[in-house]
Amino acid sequence: MKTSPILMLALAASFAAATFNAQSADAVAKVNGVTIPQSRVDLLLKNNAAQGQPDTPELRNRIREELITREVISQEALKKGLDKSPEVTTQLEIQKQIFLVNAYLQDYFKTHPVSEDTLKKEYERQKSLLGDKEYKARHILVKQENDAKQIIAQLKKGVSFEKIAAEKSEDQGSKGRGGDLDWSAPGRYVPPFGEALKKLKKGQLTDPPVQTQFGWHVIRLDDERAYKAPGFEEVKPQIQQNLQRQTLDKLIGDLRAKAKIE
User: Fold this and answer.
1) Most Cβ neighbours (<10 Å): which of 25, 56, 79, 197?
2) Number of domains in the chain
3) SS3 216
4) Domain that holds residue 12
5) Has residue 24 been placed in a domain?
6) In angstroms, rounded to a whole number, what is the distance separating the alpha carbons of residues 118 and 25?
7) Considering the domain boundaries, does residue 214 fall inside one?
C-alpha cells in the first residue's frame, strides 16, 4: 500500500494543529475594536519553536506586527465581501478540514502510542533480515527472460557489463552508473533478488537470470564485506515513523471501509 497523502500532510505539519486549545483572554492588540488574542501569538511561537527558532522579544514583536497587518487587511477584505466569494469559501473549508484532520491524528497517536517494546521488536526483526554481510552489486533489468539470457551470453563473451547496463537496463536509477547498486544488505532487496545475491561469488553472474515483480535481472557481485547494523537509538526515530505510517494506513483504510462513499 502506498503512503497516504494524508499521512504526509500530517507528519510534515508535525501535528501542529493545536488550535483547539483554550484561548487566552489576554489581548496583544486591538484593530478597530477587534481583539487579537495572546493565543494566536502563542501558537505561532510554538510553530516557530518546532522549527528551531528561539522565543525572543524581537520574535514576539514581529509576530504581533504580522498579526496586526493580517487583521487590518482581513477587515478590508470583509468590507468588500470577499469572505463570501466561492473561491475564498472553498479555501476556508479546505483549511478547516486540514486542521481537523491534524487534530484527529494528534489525538489518535496520543491515545495509541507506539510502545518501546514494539519499537525494539521491529528493530530486531529488521536487523535479522539485514544479516551480517553487505554486497556491492550491479544489475541489468529487462522485461523479457529471453533478453536477459541473451545479455548473459554477451557478458560471457566479454562484452562490458557497464556498457550493456547503460544501453539496455530498464532500471533508470542505476543504468547511468553501469548498473551499480552500491553497497547494500540482501534484506533491503525484494526476496528473489536478495536470495540470488547471497549465492553469488565475487565476479560471478546470475545464470539463469532472476525474476522479480520488476522483470528479469542479470546480477553481478562485485564485492562483499561485513555489515554491522546501526544501534537501536540511532534508527529509533525512523522505525517509529515507519510504524506510525503503517498504523495510519490501516486506520485510514478502516475509516474508509466504514464510511458510506458514493
Assistant:
1) 197
2) 2
3) strand
4) 8-90
5) yes
6) 42
7) yes
